[in-house]
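Input.
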Amino acid sequence: MAEKIPIGADHAGFELKERLKAELRKLGYEPVDVGTNSTESTDYPDYAKPVAEQVSSGLAKRGILTCGTGLGMSYTANRFPGVRAAVAWKAEIAELARHHNDANVLVLPARFVSEDEGVEILKRWLETPFDGGRHERRIAKIERPT
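Output.
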């Protein structure tokens, strides 16, 4: 059974989301589209929340979001327990986010990456494992209340 990966975008990220969905299918994943469905103006929290909820609850292992800068989506998603949403504008950033931070939500800044770059970033994020070790201690500190 293919891994289900929730994916969402606001109007600025809609076209990139559509390309990423197609790429996910080609790679053998099952994208679960939470919207938006056009380039008509929308509010990013409406799409970040359902993706983050699925990851936070364990319904999904990881998720993908895209908006103009990636910032609004990441602010929203990171409010959910257990979610580590990382904005990645290069494949190397996505790789480090996985290796060191076990990023479970990839956030792409659609106004700052081309569709081809977005696909490259996605692939690197999907294929990179978490290093564990000393990084596990750091992640545990994120989850602990102060």
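The chain has six helices and five strands.
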